[in-house]
What we know:
Strand content: 5-15%
Oligomer: single chain
Structural class: alpha+beta
Amino acid sequence: MKNKTSAVIFRLFCMIVGSTMMAIGVYFFKIPNGFSTGGVSGISTVLGKAIPNAFVTPGTLITGINVLLLGVGYLFVGRSFGLRTVFCSLLFSLETLGLEKWIPLDSPITNQPFLELVYAILLTSIGSSILFYVNSSSGGTDIVALILKKYTRLDTGKALLCTDFLIACSSFFVFGVTAGLFSLLGLFAKAFLIDSVIESLSVCKCFLIVTEKPDEINRHIIEKMGHTTTILDATGGYSHETKPTLVTVCRRIEGIRLRRAVKEIDPKAFVIILNSSEILGRGFRSV
């Protein structure tokens, strides 16, 4: 029960941090510069400039469009995008709206558009990656992509790229060539960065331990780390001696402690440590 409560608190913390990072990146760096790198924030950035109305701000547009898409998504897709996406979508929208009211901006905060593009992409990409890490998202065009996937032959990734590409291209007509080129650059950079950050957050360590003290190391892994092992009999190609080989996987921070423990228990152990970004099964991600 305690572990389950800790997991819920951690997931909620990640959703708040991820949504807040996205709101900061969008409000302080994307909207003032006209960077439209896709998503609801991109649509709102373009429409906020195109519609000459003091009451129709990018913040109100983000909130309105997200609420509309959540409703449309529920009608066409059902509940598959989940309560976490609803929570993060509304939190991101309300935070952007709050920043707009509390810290009004009439122009970019620096005179270095490329620097601001870097921060816009970093903050929104890392924020999105954190949300994806806990099986959530900020909604928006993710919902459009799910609808396209359901009623066309496009998969989710291609559908999302198509919608974001069209949104990025619209900035050419509203903000000019410079902002349009920056938007396309940001769109492609964001796609690569999100994949890299997700892989980095999800990385686990796979240990192959050839040892003469398998019982002691096995006991340490089970009792001290709460993981289990698979024990294989490995035969050396040169010596033709058979030695036990323990195979186990753990999270990155646990890997440092396990490496230290193996060295203390059996200094002569031969250890192979591999990175893996996808571990499915009990104790890790569900299948």
